[in-house]
């Protein structure tokens, strides 16, 4: 079997020969550390991005089969984005910067965490009309036609996803959590208009790409709208306002023979899972273990085999010893036995990951699950 065949078989509870050994990319700082340690050359490091040839070579060097996040992307967000510009130099050496989303952030050299947001350009109808609405209209320029033609001509042996955008996460990025939360109460018609504009854009882009005839194995969305204690949006509001746009896009995917639709959302997603599932999103990713110990098991118990998953492997063991890796693989065994689940590190590999430990994990996964 090739990896496309394995993926289809696992996700449809059919026999397969072995589990693929997946990953979800790397922090840039991780790659730079491995380069300093002599595991990678500068040439091997150049060009590493999700699904690239350089990343494929790196995957094989470590022992992974492929990066699950290998997708064709369209420009489904602001087009063009805002100019990245420094607004103010601060006394401590940090800078107040407007980023491509129009958010005002505090940026400091060497900081690897998510920067603090201190302001947003999108606050009301006037700013929506002046700065955002025209950046969210459909145009064929949003699609990389040359890349799409390349995908059409090549013979793929790993699953290829169609990235269908973000229906709420990007809006949260543009307005900030407080801003988008207050907007629902302060100006619900505008709240609806922004969501509907984004949903229409994502639908039309997916529709146009699917007309190309490229064979995709799954659809994929990105959101990141949950934290360790739960969602950053009221579930019933999310169901009513955003759910119909998911249903429209997943229905389109289904009509083109794509019945596996995954979604990338970090954090504790439990209260949003049924909303995604009822609207055609049936595969959760990356199932962050975190402090809340996320797992596909309770979701499978609640929703049955219609709910699939990719992820759920606690990546922190890559910073520990072989015994920790072995224990984590042992923990994954009953989850794999449920069917419709492929383990994958539950986010990009962090700088504390040890090269040899990642290699050991890949070897053991191939041995245990073949």
Structural features, described:
The mean pLDDT is 96. The protein has 370 residues and is α/β, with parallel strands linked by helices. It has two domains: 325 residues, TIM Barrel, CATH 3.20.20; 38 residues, no CATH class. Helix 14 runs parallel beside helix 15. The two termini are 12 Å apart. Strands 3-8-9-12-13-14-15 form a seven-stranded parallel beta sheet, with helices on one face. A four-stranded antiparallel beta sheet has the order 4-5-6-7. It is globular. A hairpin with a 4-residue loop joins strand 5 and strand 6. The chain is 41% helix and 15% strand.
State the main characteristics.
15% strand, 4-stranded antiparallel beta sheet, 7-stranded parallel beta sheet, TIM Barrel, 15 helices, alpha/beta
